[in-house]
Specification:
alpha/beta; 2 domains; 7-stranded mixed beta sheet; two-stranded parallel sheet; 10 helices
Length: about 260
């Protein structure tokens, strides 16, 4: 959350896409000051450095979130004190999912600091715009085990109703027999959960392939990628509709990623 740039992702939007059978314990993290320091250390010309939020602004946002959490019947607490790399790493080590407002990430695109930010986070990441509408799914199978873990994490944490949405799988060109077998096993696996499924070969760089898919099919997707694909997206030097736009994205990440 970032009190300097309301409105934020609402707790209602978050709980609306997560599995209804799970108890939800939400922890809020104010990272505006953390991002300001990162941008200052990056020492980039023409960087837009976000202002640190005031105590009053943080208190107002915290009260609003606590009230919303109470109405939704979920447990919510706010992390107090300064946020640094150690704090992010510690908090995310016990989290199932770290949800970041997409507007916050957009401040950092092409500033050269997202890799450092992601190194501190050791759990899967969901970037979520204020309008979190999802009309379809786009899964990336790039031949890595983390892309499989990303889909399994989605199946475990997200609402079962999302499985009925149209789903597209972008697959990389297999380089050997092992890749061919791995791709076949992956497709057979996800067919058990998704009925409306389409397969498309990536003939270009991952970010370009995702961009083309999103432009060709206008319905807003949830993009599901592994650590390698997530790293390519976050560190892309080109503008793309995934993070520059309003596209929710699930990136599998753990302590050994990035």
């Amino acid at each position: 959350m970032d009190p300097e740039h309301p409105p934020q992702v609402s707790l209602e939007n978050v709980t609306a896409i997560l599995n209804t059978t799970h108890h939800k314990f939400l922890t809020g993290i104010s990272i505006s000051g953390y991002l300001k320091k990162k941008l200052v250390f990056a020492d980039k010309k023409n960087s837009t450095v976000p202002k640190s939020s005031t105590f009053e602004a943080r208190a107002e946002v915290e009260i609003g979130l606590e009230q919303e959490a109470k109405q939704l019947g979920v447990k919510f607490s706010m992390t107090r004190g300064e946020i640094d790399d150690t704090t992010l790493s510690t908090l995310s080590s016990v989290a199932d999912l770290l949800i970041i407002n997409e507007k916050v990430l957009q401040q950092l695109l092409r500033q050269g600091i997202l890799s450092e930010l992601m190194e501190s986070i050791v759990c899967p990441i969901l970037t979520l715009p204020m309008n979190g509408h999802i009309a379809r799914l786009v899964m990336v199978q790039d031949g890595t085990l983390s892309s499989v873990h990303a889909v399994k994490h989605f199946l475990r944490l997200f609402r079962r109703e999302l499985r009925s949405l149209p789903a597209h799988v972008l697959v990389s060109e297999p380089e050997n027999r092992k890749d061919i077998q791995g791709e076949k096993v992956f497709i057979d696996y996800i067919k058990m959960f998704f009925n409306d499924l389409g397969i498309q070969l990536m003939c270009d760089h991952l970010v370009n392939s995702l961009t083309k898919n999103i432009k060709d099919i206008p319905e807003p997707p949830l993009v599901i990628v592994g650590e390698s694909g997530g790293c390519q997206m976050l560190n892309s030097s080109k503008k793309n509709p995934i993070l520059d736009g309003e596209i929710p994205t699930l990136i599998f990440k753990n302590a050994h990623s990035f």
